[in-house]
Amino acid sequence: MEQGITQPSVKSQHLWWQNGVIYQIYPRSFQDSNGDGVGDLQGIISRLDYLQWLGVDCVWLSPIFSSPMADFGYDISDYQGIHPLFGTMEDFDELLGEVHNRGMKLLLDLVPNHTSDQHPWFLESRSSKDNPKRDWYIWHDGKADGGLPNNWLSVFGGHAWEWDEVTQQYYYHAFLKEQPDLNWRNPQVQEAMMNVMRFWLDKGIEGFRVDVMWHMVKDEQLRDNPPFPGSTFDPNDLIYDHYTPVYSTDQPEVHEIVHMMRAVTDEYDDRVLIGEIYLPIHKLVTYYGQDNKGAHLPFNFQLLTLPWDAPAIAMAIDEYEGALPAEGWPNWVLGNHDKPRISSRVGREQAKVAALLLLTLRGTPTIYYGDEIGMRDVAIPMNEIVDPQGLNMPDLNISRDPARTPMQWSGEINAGFSTHKPWLRLPFNSGRVNVEKQKGDMYSKLHFYRKLISLRKEHAALNVGSYRPIYADQQLISYVRESGNERFLIVLNLSHRPAYFKPRQESYSGTVILGTEIERIGMQVEDIITLGGDEGLLIRLS
Ligand code: GLC
């Protein structure tokens, strides 16, 4: 038997979040139950049977908490309250029960870096310089000449410092001015947020996805960020990406906070801590923490950010596998509410190849709602943009609305999402591209996803088995997954042209158990495999 670069493992030794599949729901857009055009918790409950049919193990909800909605729920005014748009705490309890009744898990979004400016903590903090909560946020005097404390910019455009007329100081906000950053160096802030975690964990949720984990601690001296190397830009542009945020993010002390969050998670059995982190691989993996006491899963966004190019992807997978700490569990994300949808980014033809990649790589996969039916970014007319990132920087074409549109359930009015005009428009083709249609079509993306998820569940090799790269060229990537006496070869053509799989040193023979073209299933392959453009194969090796 060949030796994988990671040891084959036995399924029973793994935890649910290692061999399961995570499904992200953007609650505003999943299902509306009360006819206001915005999705809600009862809506989600009514669609749980679908998720069970699809085969996902765990549902992560973007924020459902009290919020003025300046950033659609990522500006929280009460961490322990449910926004009335989504329902009540009773609805939440019912949802959690119904998720558990179906043998699934529920994760919530924890947004600890910042609160809403309407949060009572901030209202107190800004009320006077000597308020006991003053130090809960990042307040600073201007420079002697009255200038801003430093050159840090907001991710959503403009300066990251907001002047407070009443107390004559600036406060820092990495995102909107309505989202002031908490001061995580303050032990009271730490304690308060750990108690928020306990509140939800006590209720029985299985864990958290932690928002902007790498932002939580900033340089104590507030040093200026350097300009992005080589960029020639107008300093008046105030665009976040024109600087390298070496002092405003990813500070060494953040690991103490992550460690603290993990310790709270570990007060409970079998929970998971996931971190949202956009950093290069070598920095990302540090969030597993010393002795793996950091995040269980620092989200790996490479498939979202890399060009769809076979050598680049093959290299990134290997680099990631190589950089993981010994006990660090890998994970892969193909879509989320902040980035263009995969079908729009790589094109319809490659969507199934991308699914095959996501669901056969080693590590926990996260699926973004609607990607399983190939939903694309919806063209939102300029006067309908609601995302602050899109509104603040209209020329950059970076509104996130197109990837947040309502789930396309059926050919009914508003695609079965709502009886009311939805908060974001649907695409013109939702009568054709929807769950109902695809359920009735064995060749659809939906059935492809469902089959893949079930194969992954059935075969330990595909979820927890070892990973070994075989061969990559300008068009193809290929690898073997193995556990016990089961071996699978995955060959993916990331280009539109036909290609030959011709490994140099070994030869492979086996049976196709799933392909992007269903007709391939059951075919025997041996030695050189000829693939069509946009084709991917999952082969059980003999
Ligand atoms: C994260 C969220 C994003 C939000 C931002 C500020 O990146 O995913 O949607 O706007 O944090 O909270």
TrEMBL record:
CDD domains: AmyAc_OligoGlu_like
GO BP terms, alphabetized: oligosaccharide catabolic process
GO MF term set: alpha-amylase activity
Pfam families membership: Alpha-amylase
InterPro entries noted in UniProt: GH, GH13_cat_dom, Glyco_hydro_b, O16G_dom_2
Sorted UniProt keywords: Glycosidase, Hydrolase
Domain Glycosyl hydrolase family 13 catalytic: residue ranges: 24-404
Domain of life: Bacteria
Similarity remark: Belongs to the glycosyl hydrolase 13 family.
UniProt-recorded name of the protein: DUF3459 domain-containing protein
Species for this entry: Dyadobacter chenhuakuii
